[in-house]
Each structure stands twice: as C-alpha cells, then as structure tokens.
Amino acid sequence: MELDIDYTGIDIVPSLIAANTARVARGEARGRFLLGDITRDALPSCDVILCRDCLVHLSFQNIARAVARFRASGAQFLLATTFPEWRDNRDCEDGDWRALNMTKAPFNWPSPRKVINERCDEGDGGWRDKSLGLWRLDELPD
Question: What's the whole-number mean pLDDT along residues 91-105?
Fold first, then answer.
C-alpha cells in the first residue's frame, strides 16, 4: 500500500527485517525496518502505532509490557487487531496464537473509536470478525 507517511516497521525476526530492508533498497517499499522487541525495547517516537497480528501471539504479561512501550513512544493512537465477537480471552505462551477481544477481561479496553473489519475468510469463516480497532493510548486502562 502506498502511503505518504514516515513508516517504521519493527519486528523480532531478523530475516523479516533483512527482507524488508532489501525491498526498500530495490525501491519496492518505503520506510525503514528495525529489529526490536516491543515488550522490552524503546520504540521510536510516532503518532500512531499499527500493531496488526502481533498481540495475539503474546502472553497477557507481555501484552501489558508492549502497551507500556507504546505509551512511552509518545504515540497518541493504537491500531491493533481485535476480534469484537470473541467472548473469552485466554492467556497463552509467547509465540502461540489465539483470538483476543481487547474490550474483554483482562484488558477491558473501551470500545474502539473505529473498527475496520478485515473480512477474514480463514478458519472456514470462524475469524470473520477479525478487525483492526483504533484506540487512544491515554484512554486504555493501566
């Protein structure tokens, strides 16, 4: 997607960062790509954090750490994956996957300001509610 923005991508997988950096060098992509851990590393200053398909792979404890890092970046908004129809969140080991509804316990985030339904057709329609929700970081509970 071509956007007229200053984009920084951060990932914990070195090969992904190398591949995206090579794409930028070839003129196939824009932005910069950095190796980092959103649960431990300082994040660059920004206005909006796009965290798609990431928190669903982290334990509740590391989600809290990531959100603390998001706040520390100075960002005002967070655009993150959520499953609005999902009823019960369960914890997992880092690296596993499960759907999360960020408005349910243990997160109890307010309703997102905007919801973008991704129209996901994976899982025989079981993930049809997979969406990106937009929240103000200063409105999320600690």
Answer: 97
